[in-house]
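Inputs:
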Amino acid sequence: MTTPANSEEYQRQARFQEAIAPEVNRLFRLALAIVDDSGEAEEAVQETLLIAWRRWSSLLTYENQPAWLTRVCVRECVRRRRLLTRRALHSSRGTEISVQPSYLDARLMDLHRAYNTLSPPQRAMVALHLHDGYTVVECAAILGCRPGTARSHLGRAVAKLRKELPDA
Amino acid sequence: MPDPHVTDEELANLTRAYLTRRRGQPAPRNLESDAVSFAFAHRRTKRLGVVLGAAALVAASALTAGVVLAFHHASQSPATSNAATQARVRIVRFPGTLALPPLDRTIHSATIVRALAADVESLPRYPLDERCPADFGTYYFLTFTFLGSSPLSAKIEAEGCEVVQVPGKPVQWAARSPQLWADLTRALGFDPRNLPPPQSDAGTVAGGIQQLCSPNASTPPGSLRFLAGTIDVFAGSSYGLNAPVYETQTLTAGWQFRLTLPPGNFVIMALDPASYNIGPYVKVTVTPRHTTTANIPFPTACR
């Protein structure tokens, strides 16, 4: 258990902290867009860092560590959002998961309601493709599915958003 | 029915606006350090679980119960607690923004381990309305290990609110618990709260989110009111939702921030409390050992 300050383990921890810490806020904001719950987003980020620390030796050899972290975080968020949805379905409160934020104006509030009807992969596709500007192929790699499946998620998400949005 | 008036581009723009606002919510203040500490603290336990599978899970549950009992017995009947007498505590200091030498010690003295475990166990809950002195992010991470059990940890802030976090327990408070600090002093050989001042060439920026009334408001001119809100500090000249945040502070109404920063240029931005979106900002240049005043004017309705 003991880790002297000048030991290799301590140096590894310091290098990990230095490399990963700048990514934490970005991951949190991405997670928030998918899970729509700051507590869950925080836990998703923690889980991502835990996985990263376990695989730190191999992660050190990767050229694009942020992309790897994004992939792990998005998949963790999709998993957590599924659990949240399942819990909400089993609870007596119905499918309403999140409290309606007060800072959105009416039009965005409509979109917020529509966004809440999307499935977890659809939310991830919207966040990654429409907001972050990833291509469909890149989104597919992040989500771990075929590009055709990713395109299908996106198409259905857009159709659902359009359907749920009332007239302006 | 689908809305025939919403074009693809409008929908995309609306979605982008929604997500930009949604994602503008500031991250929890200690998320970085908490997440990293979580990763370091849980590594071994998780691996063990994977290797040993369900059988280990059952064993771990039993052992965890033992550790909890050991925590309780440590303060009540230390001499009879076998697990506690073979315990140790590892103390790691995370320096935050201070320039501190690394500290990572493991204490094997059963007396000290028992005392620290009892101190942590008996801390009061953190009062949410407490106003705290400056915080440079320095904290001590204690990992208690009892023979044959999973380690339990406690994160103790050395300044500011002196918050103590133990996984699975409500947030606790060490500011009014001198015994904990006395026992930590005994364990380390120095006062853990007696930290050196921030880097000698650092400067200070003080200010607040200043209420900026419209000309026809009834608030007398010249009166200075500071609003509640969150400020993000960005190093250099890049700022915004996608720029890396150097430091974040949350202010209550009437209170000002006081930042200790290295020399250089910074942007201090107030997040709009209504939308968590980008708000007004000021650019400051920090000079060594000088205090710069930088109020952020925030236009708002005044009474």
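The first strand of chain B starts at residue 88 and ends at 94. Flag for discussion at group meeting.
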